[in-house]
Write a structure and sequence with these properties.
The structure is a homodimer of 141-residue chains. Chain A has 141 residues and is an alpha+beta fold. The first copy, chain A, has a single domain, classed as Electron Transport, Fmn-binding Protein, Chain A (Pnp Oxidase, Chain A, Roll). Chain A is built from three helices and nine strands, in the order H-E-E-E-E-H-E-E-H-E-E-E. In chain A, a hairpin with a 5-residue loop joins strand 1 and strand 2. The longest helix of chain A is centred in the first third of the chain and has 11 residues. Chain A is globular, with a radius of gyration of 15 Å. Chains A and B meet through strand 1, strand 2, helix 2 and strand 5 of A and strand 1, strand 2, helix 2 and strand 5 of B.
Chain lengths: 141, 141
Amino acid sequence: MNRKQDTLRRLEEDEDVWVASADPDGNPYLVPLSFLWDGAALILATLGSTPTGRNLRATGRIRIGLGLTRDVVMIDGSAEPLHPDEVSDELGDAFLAKAHFDPRKLDGYLYFRVVPTRIQAWGEEYELKDREILRNGTWLI
Amino acid sequence: MNRKQDTLRRLEEDEDVWVASADPDGNPYLVPLSFLWDGAALILATLGSTPTGRNLRATGRIRIGLGLTRDVVMIDGSAEPLHPDEVSDELGDAFLAKAHFDPRKLDGYLYFRVVPTRIQAWGEEYELKDREILRNGTWLI
C-alpha cells in the first residue's frame, strides 16, 4: 500500500470526514461533515451556531478522521474561517459539486479552511509504528 | 428503519468507535478504538499515557461516533476509569473476545466505562430533525 497515494485519493474522493473540536473549557464535540479538498487544504462548512461552528471560531483547533476505523487517516491542523470575500466563485462551485449543498445560499453558514500540519495513516495495528506520513506540513514519504 | 434496534445492533456488533476527547485547555483529540458493549455501557481501553487516556482521566468528557458518516450514531456520556478491582474476569474475558486484545496483560492500559446520556442517530440529512433517540439516559423511541 502506498499510504501517501491512498491518503490523497481519499482526500479527493471521500465525501465526509469526522470532525473533532472542543470548546475552550475542554468539552469535546464530534460530528461528520462533508468536505472539499482543494489540493492544499480541506474546506468545511457548517452553521456558525452549531457546537462545531462555535468551537472552530473560538479556538481553531481541530482533529479530523478520514476513512474507516481500520483504514484511517488522521489529520491535525488549524481551522481558519474564510471571509465571504475569500470564497471565490470557483471555490464555492467546487464545494457545491462535492458536498451537494451551497453554504453561499444558506443563512449563517461559515466556511473553514484546514491546512494539514500532521497526517497519520494506518490500517491494522501493526502499522501504528510508522503511521506519521506528514509532519509540519511536509510529506515524510 | 428502527433506529433503536439498529443502534443496539451496532453497539453489539461493530468493532470500533470514534472517540473524541479534549484536554482541559480545549485541544481536541480523536482516535478509533475497539470497544465492548456490556448491555448498559461501552467499555473502552487505552494506554493511560496516550492523549485519549490522559484526556479521559483529566476530564471524563467524551463524545463517541459509531457507524458510518451517512449512517451514524453519536453518543454523549462520561468516561469513568475502572479500577482493576472493578474489572471482573467475566468483563475482562468479554473485552478480549470482542476487541482481540487483553488490557489486563499489558502495562499501562486503563479501562473506561461510558454510560450513554444522549444518543443521536441519523442517516442522510433529512433525518436530522428527529435524530435524538436517547436523552438523559432514557430511550425516546
